[in-house]
Every structure is written in C-alpha cells, then in structure tokens.
Specification:
Blueprint (H helix, E strand, L loop, with lengths): L6 E5 L3 H12 L3 E6 L6 H9 L3 E4 L11 E4 L8 H8 L4 E3 H8 L3 E6 L4 H12 L5 E5 L5 H7 L10 E5 L2 H4 L7 E6 L13 H8 L6 E7 L3 H6 L7 E4 L8 E4 L2 E4 L5 E3 L9 H15 L4 H10 L8 E6 L2 E5 L6 H9 L4 E7 L17 E7 L3 H7 L6 E4 L2 H11 L4 E5 L12 H15 L2
Helix pairs in contact: 1-6, 5-10, 5-11, 14-15
Length: 444
C-alpha cells in the first residue's frame, strides 16, 4: 500500500516520528505532527516547519483526528487518551516500520527477541557486508524511514537486504510488512507494564512471522519450543545442539554439520555463552542467503561486540570488570552469570520490571557478593536468601565503589542490573558509562 496525497498524522516526535514525517512529506502527503510532551528536540521542530509540516507540542489536539492515516511512535501506549479517541474514529494506525516498509523495494530480514537483538543484528550486518550491500535499521536506533528516505529505497536500488531489529512495541501496528526472513531469538518477562499478560507479550512478538518467507525460532528457548511447531517447512528451528540446524556448539567450539566450520570460542571476540546462540542464528541466516562459509567464519572472529552488552572492558590487579548495563531483566542477568566461570561480585538495581529475583540464587556458588542499589534494592534484597552476601546501597556510585572494594584477585565485578535504569539515569548507556568511569577513576 502506497500513501501519496493523504492527510497523514504523526503521533510522537522522537526520532521515528521525525523521520516518518520527512518521508511522508517527500512522498507528497499532507503531514501533521503531534506530541504531548514539551521536552522535544527543537531541531526536529524547526526542520519540519521549514518543510511546511504543521507541528503541535505539549498537547494532542483533535486536529490529529482529521488524518486519513496515523503513524504512531512505538513509545505511546495503546490505551492512552489520544489512542482511544483515534480508535473511536476508526482511523487506521500503523507503525513507522510499516509505513517505511510500504515504500521500500528492498528485501527485509527481521529480528526480535527479549534479549540479544542488537548484538545479532550488528553481527549479521558484519557477516553479510562481506559480500553484499546491506543496511541495518529499526530498534537499533536508526529509524527505517531514515534509511528509506536517505537511500531512496522507494526507487530501484542496489541494497540487497535491510536488517531490521524490531521490538514488541514496533510490531504492534505492523501487520503487512513483508519479510524475507523473520527470527525470534528468545522470550522472557519484559514490558509487563505495557501488556496485560506474558501471553499478550508473546502474541505481539510472534507477529514477526506474518508475511515472512522463512521463519526461524530458538529451539533452546523452552517457551518458544512449546508454542511454535516446526511442522511447516517455512518454520525452522535453530539451536546450539547438533540435531537442529546446520551450526551447533560442542566442547567450546562452534561447528557445522558439514564439517566446513570449526571456530574455537577463544578465537571469538564476542564473549558470553549466551552469545553462542546469537552467533549461530546469524550464521544460519548468512548461509541461507548464500554467504561463503569462509566469510562467515572471518566475520564471526572479527566482530567485537557492542558497548554495555557483556562488555569486558578492563582488568586491574587480576580483577575483570564487565559492563552489562543493557541487562534490564532477570533473564539477561542470568545469562551473564552463566557465562562466567570465576567468582563474581554482582551489581543489581534500578527500576524493577519483575517482583521476584530469587532465580539469581541459582548461581550462589559462584557469587562472592551482591550489591543492590536504587529503587529495586528493597525488592531484590527480600527476594534473595540470606546465605548470599548482600549489601544494600542507595546510590549507584556508592554501590560500584563497594563492589570494587569487595573484589579479590581472579574475581569478576559484573554490572548486570536486571532492571531499567531510569531511577538514577536517562538510559542504560549513561549507566554503563558511569560504571566504567567509576572503575577507571578508582584505579587512576
């Protein structure tokens, strides 16, 4: 479906709203942007007004209800007052991803999951770039509308694939996006403030399989294994085990069924046993689109990983420091702990997404101490058994200081907070940078 000469309303003026407004205007639509917040990017407002786009800030007026179509920013809840008005008027609502996809002539590879999306998308981009022209976009922080507009993907182009990271929020109004390959990496409790139940969250995630030529899912994820049946030839499991898929993990190596690949984990810069699954699915996709095995191996070995995602950033006096600030749920913290064979001083805290942190105690044999901080500190402290050394600290900086002082030679200080960052930071990146700065100052 193409949209030209329409009255298009943009709900929300973050990056996705800004770029979808620019794309819509370039396609000769009448565009109106509405954001109820007053704290928006002034450069966005000024640029859109220069293009002749009407922008309102600090309110959602009824002018948005005059639109033929509304592009909703993913952060706006579906049960908000303005969305209730829009739904009562029966105005079609789509996501920025769907709007951009309607105008792109490039094939899409789409990836979702509770954890590991950005790492997998970035690794896959590195692998495919060895032989193809590819672009990455979506929840990775690059709006699809920006990619479509700047690369003129609405015309004939030389881009082989767009690799899209899709959050559940982006999938909510994205029913018609065509996908060459869709992937769901894993699923665990997250965003329960947005969804009525875990089942509701799963049903949103699984929308990624709609309009997909090939659908891949993680067979090792118990919930996905139970809910997704691979009796359809286009629904394909992947696994770290030998009996599923072409690639698998065995005895500290990533191997292939055809014996054409053997990569020792010691030769891979991307650390963490949880990342083995991400590497395997990236390799499976690359093989499916025709990338040579040698280039797959080379890209896997060269990929350095991403900041704030199980980032082993420095060692001092025999103590390793790992910045896993992107860990915002319990499952991601558990995966980090699974990847460490030495004694750990763990920093947990922030704004909790879950009530019960007792699963952390499964790793108590390897935990020297847990330092809990912030808004979640009381809830975490009460969830954990008292045979684990626990200390509650209010401020993040003080918590990191205590963790450093508690470390001993041949141990690991792990920031894997299992909580959102918004009690003391603007985002997880700011939290991760603060952690690294504190450590570096301590040893300066």
């Amino acid at each position: 479906m193409k949209f030209q000469g329409k009255n298009i309303g943009i709900l929300g003026l973050g990056k996705s709203g800004y770029w979808s407004a620019k794309l819509a205007k370039s396609l000769k639509n009448n565009v109106f942007v509405s954001d109820s917040n007053t704290n928006v990017n002034e450069m966005f407002v000024d640029d859109l007004k220069m293009l002749g786009i009407d922008v309102e800030i600090g309110i959602h007026s009824d002018q948005i209800l005059e639109a033929d179509l509304i592009i909703k920013s993913p952060g706006i809840p579906n049960d908000s007052e303005i969305m209730n008005k829009i739904n009562s008027e029966k105005i079609p609502v789509i996501s920025e991803i769907e709007f951009a996809g309607n105008h792109s002539k490039t094939k899409n590879i789409c990836i979702t999951g509770t954890n590991g999306k950005t790492t997998t998308v970035s690794l896959l981009t590195e692998i495919l770039s060895k032989e193809m022209n590819v672009l990455k976009s979506g929840n990775i922080g690059i709006p699809f509308s920006k990619i479509v507009l700047e690369n003129k993907l609405y015309d004939q182009n030389d881009i082989d694939y767009c690799i899209l990271e899709l959050s559940s929020f982006q999938l909510e109004h994205c029913s018609k996006l065509k996908k060459e390959i869709s992937v769901i990496l894993n699923i665990s409790f997250d965003h329960m403030d947005r969804y009525d139940s875990f089942e509701d969250y799963f049903e949103t995630k699984i929308k990624i399989f709609e309009n997909a030529k090939y659908c891949l899912f993680n067979y090792d994820d118990n919930f996905l294994n139970e809910r997704i049946k691979s009796n359809d030839k286009n629904i394909i499991p992947f696994s770290i085990r030998e009996e599923k898929g072409y690639y698998y993990y065995d005895t500290n190596k990533i191997l292939s069924n055809g014996n054409s690949i053997s990569i020792d984990l010691e030769d891979i810069l991307l650390k963490g046993i949880h990342n083995v699954s991400n590497i395997i699915i990236a390799a499976e996709i690359a093989r499916k689109v025709g990338i040579d095995q040698k280039n797959i191996c080379r890209a896997v070995r060269e990929f350095e990983g991403l900041e704030h995602r199980f980032e082993h950033f420095i060692s001092y006096n025999g103590i390793d420091f790992i910045n896993d600030s992107k860990s915002t749920n319990i499952d991601s913290a558990k995966k980090a702990l699974e990847s460490i064979s030495r004694k750990v001083i763990l920093i947990l805290g922030g704004i909790p997404k879950e009530d019960d942190f007792s699963d952390i105690s499964l790793f108590k044999k390897s935990i020297l101490k847990i330092v809990v901080y912030g808004e979640a500190s009381h809830k975490i402290y009460n969830s954990l058994p008292k045979d684990i050394s626990l200390e509650r600290i209010e401020k993040f900086e003080d918590a990191v200081q205590v963790a450093i002082e508690s470390a001993v030679e041949n141990s690991v200080v792990l920031l894997s907070p299992a909580c959102a960052s918004f009690d003391q930071f603007d985002n997880y990146k700011e939290r991760g940078k603060k952690f690294k700065n504190i450590v570096e100052r301590f040893y300066a």
